[in-house]
Design goal:
The protein is built from 25 helices and 14 strands. The chain is an alpha/beta fold and 566 residues long. The chain has a domain of 185 residues: Rossmann fold (3-Layer(aba) Sandwich). The strands form 3 sheets. Strands 8-7-6-9-10-11-14 form a 7-stranded mixed β-sheet, sandwiched between helices. It has a 5-stranded parallel β-sheet with strand order 1-3-2-4-5, with helices on both faces. A two-stranded antiparallel sheet has the order 12-13.
Length: 566
Amino acid sequence: MINNKHESAALRQPFPTEGAFPAGADILHNPILNQGTAFSEEERDLLKLRGLLPPRVLTQELQAERALRNFRKKANDLEKYIFLISLEDRNEALFYRVVMDNLMEMMPIIYTPTVGLACQEYGNIFRRPRGLYISANDRGRVAEILENWPYTDVRVIVITDGERILGLGDLGAQGMGIPVGKLSLYTACAGIDPATTLPVMLDVGTNNEAMRDNPFYIGLPQSRLRGEAYDALVDEFMTAVAHRFPQAVVQFEDFSNHNAFRLLQKYRHHYRTFNDDIQGTAGVALAGLFSALRLTGGTLAEQQLLFLGAGEAGIGIADLVVSAMMQEGLTAEAARQRCWFVDSRGLVAAGRGDLAVHKLPYAHDHTPLTTFLEAVEALQPTAIIGVSGMPKMFTQPVVEAMARLNERPIIFALSNPTSRSECTAVEAYTWTDGRAIFASGSPFDPVELNGQTYVPGQGNNSYIFPGVGLGIVATGARHVTDEMFLAAAQTLAGLVTPDDLAIGLIYPSLKRIREVSAHIATAVAEVAYKQGLAAVPRPENLLAVVQTQMYQPTYRNYAHELAAAR
C-alpha cells in the first residue's frame, strides 16, 4: 500500500547525506517542501535559509490564522479563489491546513460554484501553471511530455478536454481549473497525498469562438479536433500513462456526451479508470435516494424516477439505480421501466428518431410529451432529478405537481454551478410547504419556513470520488467497477444520521467528509478484494489501514531528518 506520510513521492524521501536535496531559495520556491516562516532556527542554518526569511519563527497555526484573515478580506469569491490557488502554489501544506480546517467555507471556493467562474476567467487570472498541458500539436510525443513531470509516483490523474465544463459548456483549455480543483478535493476530503496527483488538460482546441478570440486565452485558438485524430491522441495518452505511471487511476472529467460514454466503455476494462460525471454523479445521487427513502418509506424498486437531462449524469444515475433495483429483485428491463427521461426535445420515448445510443435503453413506449410538466403529470414520479444544466426548469407548477402527487416529493436539482440549478432550495421548500426532500449540486443556505429550519443536502460528487480513489489507491485495484460505486452509495447513505434526516439533510455533514471517505474507501476496497482486483494482500483491519494512509498537512522536521540521514 502507498504510504502517504513521506515516502509516497520522490520529494518526500528522507534527506540524502550529501547535498542532493534542494536548499536555500530552491526549497522556498518548491510548494511541496516550503514551510515559509515556520522553518526553525536550526533548519534555517541547515538548509541555508538564514537571511532569506524574516527572522521571527511562526507556527503553522499562526500562519493559517493569518491566511484565513486575508482570505476573508477578499472582496468577492473569485478573489478568494485566486488567493487560495496562490497559497497552494507557495506552500501546499499550509493550503491544505487552511482548507481542511475550514472545509465548509472553502469548498464552494475551490470547487463549485466558484470554480466555474474561475474557469471562465482562467486566462485573465492566470498566474502559474499547474499540472500538464497536452495539446493536439503534441501527437507522437505524449510519452516525452509525461517524462517532463518531475514526480514518478503518481497515483491519481484527473483529465479533461474542457468541452463540457460543469453546466457552462466548452471552455477549452481554461477548463484546467476542474482537474486542479478535483485533485484538491482528493487531498482535502480523502487524504490522497498531493505529491501523487496530476491534473491534465487535453487541449484539442475549442469551438467557443469568444474564447478563441480572447487574446488572453491560454489554449490552442483553433476548432476542436475530432474523429480518428482525437481518438489517436487519447489512446496515446492512456498508453503513455500506463507506462510512465503504472499505479495511477485516471479520472475522466467534463468530457462531452459523445466522447464520455464511448471512452469509458473503451478503456474501463483495460486501464484503471472511471468517469466521474457518469459514475461519481450516479453514486452520490443513488445515495441521496437511499437516504430519502428513510423519510418516505418504501423500497427503491417501488420508485418512479423522472430525469430532466439525458446526458452523462442522468444516464449514469439511471444505470446505477437499475443495478440497485436488480439487487432488490427486479429484472434489468423492469428496473429501466421505472426510469424516464425528458431531454431538450421532450420525453425520451420509443419511436423517436433522434435518440443517441446511450438513451435507447430508457426509450419506453409512450405517447409524445413536449414539456417536463406534461411528463410529471402523465408519469406521476416519486422523484424528479435535474441534471440538465438548464436553470429554473423545476418551475412552480412542476414542484407543486410533485407535492400534489407525493406526501414527501423527492426533488434533486443537481446541475452545477448554482446559476444552473433547476430550482433553489427556497423554491423547493416554499412550493411544497416544507414537504420536499431536496438536494442540489451546489450549496444553498438553510431555509427558514413556518418556524422550522430546513438544511438542504448538497449532492456533490466530492462525497464519492475521493473515497473511491482512496480505495483504489490503497488496494492497487486493476479496474474500477460499477459495483464499487454501488458500494460507495450504500456506504454514504448509511452514514446519514437520524439527526441529519430530522432537518431534511440526506447527506452527512461535510465536516465529516474525511470519515466518510475512509468508510467509502474501505467499502470500495472490499469490492476490489471480492472481485479479485486488488494488487496487495488484504490486511486484517482494512479501515484502520486506510485511515493510516491519509495525508495530514503537517510540517516536516527537517532538522530531525538531516540528523537521521547522518
